[in-house]
Structure to design on (548 residues):
């Protein structure tokens, strides 16, 4: 039971990470490989807040403030890294964001006050399954509502055709930055929630491999689909556990299996499980009725 | 009478050693319907790219309503009232027809990202108005029955029309059309000619268009500029242009008149 609860909680954290990365990579079409960096910033600032400066208020309020601290810190980092990097294109942006997230990790390793290479221990257990899924719902609602307005359309227009978007009066840089700031902010919230539920975080838990895995989640689900990001996050969180059940050898070959899975997916359905579409319960019911 | 809304003063564009556009002088007045013609590679599209801020001229000045816009970004120039279509259609192919139009209304919307997230009344009202306006525009272009289609699924001629509709959704004062009839059959081209004249009168805008279809240009345009190897070689009304020896030579001198 404990094991299942732990898995469910991890699914929630990764749903937030995948849905937020999807805003940057899938919706705005900006190839970021630094999501683990924002996740780490949220986790460490959140943990630092809970350890060094908790407010004299009930735990659940502190949790919300802590999530705010993690989210806002990551957003600010998003602005600082976004302003120079979002002018870069494609591969360059990927390399720059990847470099940024590794720098964040190295800075943390060298910061004794947050535990350095030993990791950050004794973080209070403020979060539980309920709180994590409340944030899952908030993340999905905020991002899907944003996408239905003109800000969201502007973000998508960048992915679709940047020159056409500019020629229609859309300041594409501004909207890239918006996607980046909102996306990194929610990654920061996921970090704080992660810290408050695991009670222990380690810099290597945020290495670039995790950025790649989160990216795989959204590619698997379908770049640009929120539903796809959710499903991709669940599949890739559960998959290693399933592989573990199949014995230690298979489990060791995890990354190879991921790669094979991805190649198969590219052959079978290059647009991901959901493509750019959302799963709409109402239109499904309508279709079943007719 | 006021001056021109657009005046390019000797604009020049160099790409490395190539003079794509060489000291070109254009004037477009209110309610004008002006054409730019010239053989392939003459620099016509490059002129549009300079006017719309995609390229910054190497020399010369672009004056839009008494304001120098040489160094303005493309989105600012759109705000100042210039809209365009592209030679190789640039629709948002994976968005619906109506969302292509709605996107172009971006400038007119004032609600914040927060009110979009919270679905406020202000958000809903503005979105409703936007949708109404988009449908009106789609009706003009006979595309309203296709409003929920993905843009990529429209036939070619309709994609061209949708791109014009999308440009108009920004409420421009000056509309630039880059080969609007390319790929259209003769019937579609004739309908397009009528539509262009009608749009100019209905929306009270000036239109500057690049076109290879001589029938369309001669029918529609009141004034024509002729470019050859980046240089302006002639300017005048359709009959003047048709009888201009320089123009005849430019066209006969090239093997390709498509
Ligand atoms: N971005 C660019 N870089 C280099 N050369 C270009 C660029 N854009 C256009 N050109 C060149 O400038 C010339 C004019 O091109 P263009 O304006 O597209 O001609 P037109 O629209 O009249 O057919 C061509 O020789 C073309 O190859
Ligand atoms: Mg051209």
């Amino acid at each position: 039971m404990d094991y299942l609860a732990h898995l469910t909680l991890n699914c929630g954290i990764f749903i937030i990470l995948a849905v937020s990365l999807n805003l940057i990579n899938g919706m705005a079409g900006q190839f970021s490989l630094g999501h683990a960096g924002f996740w780490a910033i949220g986790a460490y600032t959140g943990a630092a807040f809970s350890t060094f400066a908790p407010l004299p208020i009930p735990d659940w309020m502190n949790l919300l403030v802590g999530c705010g601290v993690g989210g806002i810190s990551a957003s600010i980092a998003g602005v600082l890294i976004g302003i120079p990097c979002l002018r870069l294109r494609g591969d360059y942006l990927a390399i720059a964001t990847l470099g940024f997230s590794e720098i964040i990790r190295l800075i943390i390793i060298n910061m004794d006050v947050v535990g350095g290479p030993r990791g950050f221990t004794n973080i209070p257990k403020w979060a539980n399954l309920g709180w994590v899924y409340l944030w899952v719902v908030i993340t999905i609602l905020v991002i899907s509502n944003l996408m239905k307005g003109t800000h969201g359309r502007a973000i998508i227009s960048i992915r679709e055709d940047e020159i056409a978007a500019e020629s229609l009066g859309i300041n594409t840089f501004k909207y890239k930055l918006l996607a980046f700031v909102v996306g990194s902010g929610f990654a920061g919230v996921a970090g704080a929630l992660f810290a408050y539920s695991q009670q222990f975080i380690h810099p290597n838990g945020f290495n670039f491999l995790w950025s790649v895995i989160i990216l795989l989640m959204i590619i698997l689900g379908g770049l640009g689909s929120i539903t796809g990001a959710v499903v991709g996050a669940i599949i890739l969180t559960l998959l290693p556990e399933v592989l573990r059940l199949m014995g230690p050898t298979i489990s060791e070959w995890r990354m190879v299996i991921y790669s094979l899975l991805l190649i198969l997916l590219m052959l079978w359905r290059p647009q991901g499980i959901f493509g750019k579409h959302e799963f709409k319960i109402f239109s499904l019911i309508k279709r079943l009725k007719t | 009478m006021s001056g021109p809304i657009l005046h390019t003063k000797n604009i020049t564009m160099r790409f490395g050693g190539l003079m794509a556009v060489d000291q070109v002088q254009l004037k477009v007045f209110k309610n004008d319907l002006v054409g730019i013609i010239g053989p392939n590679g003459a620099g016509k599209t490059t002129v549009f790219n300079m006017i719309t801020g995609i390229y910054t001229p190497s020399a010369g000045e672009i004056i839009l309503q008494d304001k120098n816009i040489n160094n303005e970004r493309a989105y600012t120039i759109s705000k100042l009232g210039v809209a365009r279509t592209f030679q190789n259609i640039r629709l948002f192919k994976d968005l619906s027809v109506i969302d292509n139009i709605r996107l172009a209304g971006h400038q007119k919307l004032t609600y914040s990202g927060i009110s979009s997230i919270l679905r406020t009344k202000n958000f809903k009202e503005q979105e409703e108005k936007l949708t109404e306006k988009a449908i009106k525009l789609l009706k003009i272009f006979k595309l309203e029955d296709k409003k929920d289609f993905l843009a990529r699924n429209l036939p070619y001629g309709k994609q061209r029309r949708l791109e014009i509709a999308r440009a108009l959704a920004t409420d421009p004062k000056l509309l630039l059309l880059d080969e609007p009839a390319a790929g259209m059959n003769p019937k579609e081209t004739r309908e397009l000619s009528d539509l262009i004249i009608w749009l100019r009168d209905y929306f009270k805008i000036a239109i500057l268009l690049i076109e290879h279809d001589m029938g369309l240009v001669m029918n529609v345009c009141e004034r024509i500029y002729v470019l050859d190897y980046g240089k302006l070689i002639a300017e005048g009304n359709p009959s003047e242009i048709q009888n201009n020896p320089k123009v005849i030579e430019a066209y006969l001198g090239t093997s390709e008149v498509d």
Summary: Chain A touches chain B at residues 141-142, 145-146, 148-154, 156-157, 160-161, 163-172, 178, 276 (CB under 8 Å). The pocket of adenosine-5'-diphosphate (ligand 1) is lined by residues B 15, 18, 20, 38, 40-46 (CB under 6 Å). The longest helix of chain A spans residues 59-85. The radius of gyration of chain A is 19 Å.
